[in-house]
């Protein structure tokens, strides 16, 4: 079991776009480590490789009650969108902050599995929201980037204050 450190703002690596996976056998170890990391968090439901400092375009999501039905997305791409919905979002990389974010209600998705097979399907509702949130990470975006400027600045100030408080506790 390898639990990877989760990057938090203001770490600049969160803003770097991911690169496509070219070796699916190499991705298997990363996926296992990401799932281990996701499962030790108390409130995590999804994780992008960029959140653990890795450049690969890999996402893991598990909404199951027993946390035993992971969805693995490699080189994922949204192929079409429809409608809108608003959900309360939070993020392991933006701790202790949530906000309402508008996303697409329904998305078409294409992604590879660990065997290198491309699948295409449609998702709606909360899972579509989670997928969009995680795919944003692969583009170097965070959910707070979807907020109006005033709310985004408030979030950044709160996170900076939390960071100063944490550094002070370590001194």
TrEMBL record:
It comes from the Bacteria. Transmembrane segments: none annotated. The keyword Methyltransferase does not apply. Its EC number is 3.5.1.88. InterPro entries: Peptide_deformylase, Peptide_deformylase_sf. Binds 1 Fe(2+) ion. One of its GO terms (molecular function) is peptide deformylase activity. The keyword Protein biosynthesis applies. Its cofactor is Fe(2+). It catalyses: N-terminal N-formyl-L-methionyl-[peptide] + H2O = N-terminal L-methionyl-[peptide] + formate. Fe cation binds at residues 91, 133, 137. The active site is at 134. It is an enzyme of class 3 (hydrolase). It holds the Pfam family Pep_deformylase. Keywords: Hydrolase, Iron, Metal-binding, Protein biosynthesis. NCBIfam families: pept_deformyl, PRK00150.1-3. Belongs to the polypeptide deformylase family. PANTHER family: PEPTIDE DEFORMYLASE (PTHR10458). Removes the formyl group from the N-terminal Met of newly synthesized proteins. Requires at least a dipeptide for an efficient rate of reaction. N-terminal L-methionine is a prerequisite for activity but the enzyme has broad specificity at other positions. This is Peptide deformylase. The gene is def.
């Amino acid at each position: 079991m390898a639990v990877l450190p989760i990057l938090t703002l203001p770490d600049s690596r969160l803003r770097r776009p991911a690169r496509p996976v070219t070796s699916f056998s190499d991705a298997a170890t990363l996926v296992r480590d990401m799932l281990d990391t996701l499962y030790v968090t108390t409130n995590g439901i999804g994780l992008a490789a960029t959140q653990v400092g890795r450049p690969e375009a890999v996402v893991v999501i598990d909404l199951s009650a027993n946390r035993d039905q992971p969805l693995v997305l490699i080189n994922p791409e949204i192929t079409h969108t429809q409608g809108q919905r608003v959900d309360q979002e939070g993020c392991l990389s933006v701790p202790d902050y949530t906000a309402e974010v508008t996303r697409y209600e329904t998305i078409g998705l294409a992604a590879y599995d660990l065997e290198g097979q491309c699948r295409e399907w449609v998702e709606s509702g909360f899972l579509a929201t989670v997928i969009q949130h995680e795919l944003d990470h692969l583009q170097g975006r965070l959910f707070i980037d979807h907020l109006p400027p005033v709310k985004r600045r408030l979030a950044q100030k709160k996170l900076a204050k939390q960071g100063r408080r944490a550094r002070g506790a370590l001194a």
